[in-house]
Amino acid sequence: MNEQLPPLTHLCQLRFCASLVFGVVLYACLPWAISLIALAQPAATPVKNATAPFAHEEVLRYSVHWSFVRLGSIELRQSLKKTANGNGAVVQLSARSASGLPFIDVNIRDRAVLDPGDPRCVEFTVRKEHEPAVTKKYAFDRETRTLSVEVREARQPPVRQQRTEKRDFYDALGMIMLLRGLAGSGQQITVPMLMDFEIVHSRAECSREIEEVDVPAFDEDVPAYRIALRSSWEDESIGGLGGDIDFWCSADEAAIPLRAEMDLTLGSIVIELESCKRPGWKQRASADLGKGGAR
C-alpha cells in the first residue's frame, strides 16, 4: 500500500518548522515568535550565553519527515563579519521540498544580519523562490523605532510599508540563536517575534535536565537540553497551525540544534540533524558530563 501523503497545508510548514527550530522559526517572520516580561522593553537580552552559539562557517543540515515520508531538507549556516558597529553575524536558513512529491515545490531562503551579543531583529530577508516568487526585506531602526518592509514579486513593482514599533523583537533566525543561547538555563521567558509585519509572542521553557538524543549525524547518542516553545497564535497560511514545538540542543556551549518535533492531527513533523560542520567543535558523550537521561 502506498504511503498517504500529508495535505498541502501541512507541507507548507517546511519554513515554519525550520525557522522555529530552531523558522521557525522558526520562525519567523515565521510565526515563531520568545517571568521576564521584559518583552516590550529595550532591556538586555535574557540569554545565558548569547555569543557562544555563533561560529564562523558553521553549517548544519537537517532532514524533515512526516511519518515515513521525507518532506524535504533544511540547511542552517552562519558566518561572522565586521560591521560598522563591530562584530556581526550573517545567519541563513534554506528549506527545500524533496523531489518527487506531487504538487509540492517549496524553496525558501531566510537571511538575517545579527549582533551576536544581542540577536534582536535589525535586518531580515525572506525569499520564496518557488512560484509565485516573493522577496520580503524587513529592517528595524532601533533609534527611530521604525519598522519597514519591502515586498517584491515577479513582474510587479515593489511595495513598501513602514510603521512605528515600540518593542524590540526577534526575527526567525534571531529567535533560533536566542534559544540556543538559553539552552540549559532553566529560564521561562516570553519572546516577541516578527510575523508578517506584526509582532506575536511565544513562551519558551528551557529545561536544565540533560536527555539523550539520537540523530543521524552522529554514531552515538548526544547529551541535549530540551526547549519547549508554546504559542497562542494561529496562522492560516500554514493550515491553521499554531507554534508549539519541542526541540533539543547539544548540552554544551555550541548548543547545536539536534532535533525538533511538532505534533499534528495526522502525526508529527520531525526535523533531525544529518550533518554538522562547526570548526573546533567536538561531540561530547554523556560520560563526559557525568549524567544523562533518557529519550
Describe the structure.
With 295 residues, this protein is mainly beta. It has one domain (8-289). 9% of the residues lie in helices and 46% in strands. The chain has four helices and 14 strands. It has helices spanning 8-11, 14-21, 172-182, 286-289, and strands at 58-66, 69-83, 86-97, 107-115, 118-128, 134-141, 146-153, 159-164, 188-195, 198-213, 222-231, 245-250, 257-264, 267-277. It has a 14-stranded antiparallel beta sheet with strand order 8-7-6-5-4-3-2-1-14-13-12-11-10-9. The model is unreliable at 1-44, 234-242 and 290-295 (pLDDT under 50).
**In terms of per-residue confidence, which ranges show pLDDT below 50 for 5 or more consecutive residues?**
1-44, 234-242, 290-295
Biggest beta sheet summary:
14 strands, antiparallel
Number of DSSP-assigned strands:
14
Percent range for β-strand residues: over 45%
Instruction: Give the SSE order as H and E letters.
Output: HHEEEEEEEEHEEEEEEH
Estimated radius of gyration: 18 Å
What is the topology, as strand order, of the major beta sheet?
8-7-6-5-4-3-2-1-14-13-12-11-10-9
From the N-terminal CA to the C-terminal CA, the straight-line distance is 31 Å
- The SS-based structural class is mainly beta
Shape: globular
What would the average pLDDT be, to the nearest integer? 79
Domains, number: 1
Q: Count of helical segments?
A: 4
